[in-house]
Amino acid sequence: MAGVCEAFAGRFGRVEPRRTATAFVSGLLADIEVKTCWQLAERAGHARPDAMQRLLYRAVWDADAVRDDLRDVVVARFGDSDGVLVVDETGDLKKGTHSVGVQRQYTGTAGRIENAQVGVFCGYASRHGHTLIDRRVYLPVSWTDDRDRCQAAGVPDEVVFATKSELAADMITAAVDAGVPVGWAAADEAYGNSSVFRTHLREHRLGYVLAVSRSHLVPLDGGKTRVRADRVAADLPASAWQRRSAGAGSKGPRFYDWAWLDDVCTDADPDDGGHHSLLIRRNTTTGELAFYRCWTPQQATLARLVRVAGIRWTVEESFQAAKGQVGLDQHQVRRWDSWHRFTTLALAALAVLAICAADADDDSTDTGLIKLTVNETRRLINTLVLRPIRDLTHRLRWSDWRRRHQARARQAHYTRRLNLELQP
Predict the structure, then answer these.
(1) For residue 30, what is the DSSP state?
(2) Which helix (H) or strand (E) holds 167?
(3) CB-based contacts of 344: which residues, under 8 Å, 6+ apart?
(4) CA distances (Å), 230 to each of 49, 54, 257, in order?
(5) Distance CA 102, CA 106 (A)
(6) Which residue has the higher pLDDT, 275 or 423?
(7) Residues contacting 46, CB < 8 A, separation 6+
(8) CA dist., res. 416 & res. 424, Å (int)
(9) Looking at the whole model, is its pTM more than 0.85?
């Protein structure tokens, strides 16, 4: 943990916020039920939550600069020329209307339209390990068209509406410009269906395996005809399918049937100098199909494309670990800066777990045990490294503080509601 926090320690001009940031990351790794500023402050031994709240709201530090330092640490440990940038989004269910970016919108977290805040994330994956390295909060049009609302939430004046695929493209550009070793990009159909996003990746000469919808129109015969992806799959002979593993899963190799149509989907600039293809995955049990638009600067093999398609799932694993282990979705912040600061520190905590798990896996000795998981890594950190405060006086003082603060908040809410009801 010290190595990750030391990487961005210089971004804090004063020692107090620097120490608070380290305590914040430690708290996110700690075995506590809820990871808001109150709980993190109590865990750190603070008498009040002021320092933790100040770190997110008013302290002087650049969350994007810390993000860059964190990305450098991840690349130093996991960097590989055949690495993959994986982009995806995740939502946090919210109440009210004031949290930055919140509105009723679809989120995969709930599987339906809910009042939610959505973030777009970029993960880095290689044969050495994987974790999240970048983040953007998604602002719907209802926000960007209401500058007063944006100003109240601290959104910079220069921020305008951007689609999720545009946010993803921005993060990929930032990674490439920073010299992140990468050869591929992967994403689900929300991004793969965007021709602009695909063009952006080709401009960076990044090979890609991007999921597309079954209704996606596949350009054939040099773009002269367009056929639905599921229609293309239906016309394939049995000999077109090959059974291959998309990588190891918790229950063993993830075998699927794959069909690969090389040199199709050539609706792009003919001078891009690459190779376009369509990849189709079929579940061996249910027969369910998935479709991928692929492009490579040089000719690639089916095995490499299948590997990249399988790596896309690492971002789902990272989301699960980030929310389940380091409280990525437990922030109680409303403002633009606070969201980026909390999320960046959560990514730092996640990087600690990913790097520790990878370091433990470097030992090639056959112990008869499975690889150390991120979940188990956090348990060991709590057992061997972090020392929770068990002082009875400290716990009772915090109990009194919480109840007193909640009493004041309740009285303020009652007074406000009574004043509203008395208004003519």
Answers:
(1) S
(2) helix 164-177
(3) 63, 66, 67, 70, 135
(4) 55, 53, 15
(5) 11
(6) 275
(7) 23, 52
(8) 15
(9) yes
192, 71 Cβ separation under 8 angstroms: no
Three-class SS state of 227: strand
**Which of 69, 55, 67 lies closest to 16 in space, CA to CA?**
55
Q: Are 161 and 379 in contact (CB under 8 A)?
A: no
Distance, in Å, from the CA atom of 162 to the CA atom of 311, rounded to the nearest integer, reads 26
| Ordered alpha helix ranges (H), 372-391 | 374-384
Q: Which residues contact 81 (CB under 8 A, 6 or more apart)?
A: 181, 182, 183
- Closest C-alpha among 114, 66, 41 to residue 337: 66
pLDDT at 83 over 80: yes
DSSP 210: E
DSSP helix, strand, coil percent of the chain (3-state; round to 5): 45, 20, 30
Q: What per-residue confidence (pLDDT) applies to 402?
A: 81
Quote the tokens at residue 201.
């990746």
Give the number of residues written for the chain: 424
Which residue type is seen at 147?
R
Distances (CA, A) of 44 to 3, 18, 26, 47, 378: 19, 14, 8, 9, 17
Largest CA distance in the chain: 77
Which residue is it, tokens 């009194």?
400
Site of tokens 């603060």: 405
Count each helix (H run) and each strand (E run) in the chain, helices first: 16, 12
